[in-house]
Amino acid sequence: MTFNWSERLSPVIRDMPPSGIRRFFDLASEMSGIISLGVGEPDFVTPWAIRETGIQSLRQGYTMYTSNAGLLELREEIAAHLHGFYGVHYEPRSEVLVTVGVSEAVDLALRAIVHTGDEVLIAEPCYVSYGPCVTMAGGVPVPITTTADNDFRLTAAQVEAAITPRTKALLFNYPNNPTGATMSREDLLEIAKVVEKHNLIVISDEVYDKLTYEGEHTCFASLPGMRNRTILLNGFSKAYAMTGWRLGYACGHSEVIAAMTKIHQYTMICAPITVQKAAIEALRNGTEEMKEMVSSYNQRRRFVLKGFQEIGLPCFEPRGAFYAFPSIRHTGLSSEAFAWRLLEETKVAVVPGNALGSAGEGHIRCSYASSVENLTEAIERMGRFLKQFE
After folding, report:
1. I need a surface site. Which of 116, 143, 252, 308 has the fewest CB within 10 A?
2. What is the pLDDT of residue 20?
């Protein structure tokens, strides 16, 4: 009897497309002479004091499990950090969960709250995992399109218009991946009114909060009435250059954190203790080096914007994260076709905008978390490529 795996796989997973970001990254990694502006990863090495703390923890024999929720010492530091920056208070023992990256936190939050058929509003363009995670949780992702015409800001009116009787939650990320857009406190207060009116849950992914170059970041949970209906997500990958360490956290009402912890304990058990020890050092003593990295990103942000302008590539000015999201509509190519041809003809890897939701069509995502030397060469190659469309 012939055994057919395709028939045995979950149809939800079988029919789900792979990440458009990773596809380009994997292809680029197999080619020589590539300049990759694709993956959202700092080009800095994790600061030495953080690395040394991780190494020292191994020397001291910290190789065991921690509590499912994470080291209490780390949860206390996370709670103190959020209170110090944003004035929002979380009880470390019951309202903070340490996760394996923010990606796990997104998955846990959705699986903890979504019933079959629940709709989750998602501001697009967005991080690639949001829609698939909603689907895997049994929900229905409902995209809300943001555009450069409105600085890629999500508005309260858009949220209101997308709500149906099945709407359970709003999931959004700011500063935004891939656009670099930020949200003002006034914007968020208007959205909060709609959230309260319709009794929604908010999953607020704020992993790029420290990478805000203009104005100040507003933590959604700090807004009046939003703390107990918000699941706040954050982590260490971007601000502290700790992508490969895979550490994030979720904060929220004790009941939803308890539900998320149940899933976490049956799937991950806990985040690695070495990484948690290093994260404590990051929160206690990593601020100055973090600020230096952010300052460097800001310089590169301005450099890339100027370079794109000079080669005739229209680009919204990102005010956060470390991405530029230029429009390529004037070339007549789709985002996918543009990215493939750019890779094949110039060996510059970017992410097609449609990999980040249908709202991203007509754009490409370029990470400027790369050296000025690489950015200079990439812009020159892109300029030569664009001349054929003049």
Report:
1. 116
2. 65
CB atoms within 10 A of CB 104: 25
Nearest-Å Rg of the Cα atoms of the chain is 21
Task: Judge whether 150 and 181 are in contact, CB under 8 Å.
Answer: no
Residue 46, φ and ψ in degrees, nearest 5: -50, 130
Backbone angles phi, psi at 313, to 5 degrees: -110, 105
Q: Is the distance from CB of 260 to CB of 104 less than 8 angstroms?
A: no
Which of 244, 208, 162 lies closest to 322 in space, CA to CA? 208
CA 197 – CA 199 distance, rounded (Å)? 6
CA-to-CA dists, residue 384 to 37, 301, 344, angstroms: 17, 21, 13
122 contacts: CB under 8 Å, gap ≥ 6: 130, 131, 134, 141, 142, 143, 144, 171, 172, 357
Which parts of the chain register pLDDT below 70?
Answer: 20-25, 28
Residue 304's closest CA among 328, 323, 329? 323
Q: Are 197 and 216 in contact (CB under 8 A)?
A: no
What are the Cα distances from residue 291, in Å, to 28, 47, 194, 286, 370?
A: 30, 12, 35, 9, 17
pLDDT for 22: 66
The alpha carbon of residue 116 and the mean position of all alpha carbons in its chain are separated, in whole angstroms, by 25
Q: What is the pTM of this model?
A: 0.95
For the chain, how far is it from start to end, CA to CA, in angstroms? 59
Which residue carries 């706040």 as its tokens?
232
Residue 140: what are its φ and ψ, rounded to 5°?
Answer: -120, 115
Give me the helices (H) in the chain, please.
Answer: 5-8, 11-14, 20-29, 48-59, 72-86, 101-113, 130-136, 156-162, 185-197, 254-267, 273-285, 287-310, 335-346, 372-386
